[in-house]
Specification:
By secondary structure, this protein is an alpha/beta fold. Helix content is 37%, strand content 10%. α8 links the parallel β4 and β5. α1 (27-39) packs across α4.
């Protein structure tokens, strides 16, 4: 009997992190602020709309939910109000998820690291600046809502993220929390770990190569041994 061929991904040479609900707990906050603002104009988000928002970029959310012409103010005015309110709360609460700061700062010492998010650049920079001098923003490429024509689950964000690290997608390991984000990473050709602490209840994580409870276990050993969990297309999942 012929032995089954075992396929192992190339070694990991770079890391891309999603931001919202992967590094920092902000998805619910943004949804709450948007819901409050829209309610002032008699517009109420459905539960389906709230679930759809998770993992999608602001450009798509504005197009799908904050439709121009249906409100007495522009979608741009709504977004400015939302972002200002969000910044104030994030600055006060610093809602970084377990292990996020250590994973980001620690891995950036040994690997090229970038951020791929559907948030606007000002949001991403603001949150990273809260980390202080441990993070040099000049060395961390950012892919944000303004950079792409198609947001997650389209592969464009992670293809661009890999290009900005100067690496092939199959040399990239992505950390994500949403179904849309995982689909984007895998379609781009990256490996992907789902971080369960930020995942929406009931979300299907089957596309992820591995599922971990939090980023607390992510260190150099985790990255260097990642391929041990990807033999023959199979994955070892935790949590």
């Amino acid at each position: 009997m012929m032995d089954r061929e075992i396929h192992v991904s190339p070694s990991i040479k770079g890391i891309l992190f999603d931001l919202d609900n992967t590094l920092v707990s902000t998805e619910a906050l943004a949804e709450e602020i948007l819901s409050t603002i829209l309610a002032e104009y008699g517009c109420f988000l459905t539960e389906a709309q709230k679930r759809w928002m998770v993992g999608h970029c602001w450009n798509d959310i504005v197009t799908e939910i904050v439709l121009p012409g249906e409100l007495p103010v522009s979608s741009q005015e709504i977004m400015v109000r939302l972002l200002d309110a969000k910044d104030l709360i994030v600055a006060e609460t610093r809602p970084f998820l377990p292990g996020a700061v250590r994973a980001l700062t620690g891995l950036s010492q040994s690997y090229p690291v970038g951020i791929v998010s559907g948030s606007f650049r000002r949001e991403i920079v603001f949150i990273l600046e809260l980390l202080g001098p441990e993070i040099d923003l000049r060395t961390i490429p950012i892919v944000c809502a303004e950079d792409v024509s198609h947001g997650k689950p389209d592969p464009e964000p992670y293809r661009l993220g890999a290009a900005r690290l100067g690496l092939r997608p199959d040399h990239i390991l992505v950390f994500e929390d949403s179904v849309a984000g995982i689909a984007s990473a895998k379609a781009a050709g990256c490996s992907c770990v789902a971080v369960k602490v930020g995942v929406l209840p009931g979300a299907d994580l089957a596309q992820a190569d591995r599922v971990i409870p939090t980023l607390e276990e992510v260190d150099l050993h985790f990255i260097r041994n990642f391929n041990r969990f990807k033999l023959g297309g199979l994955s070892t999942r935790v949590g």
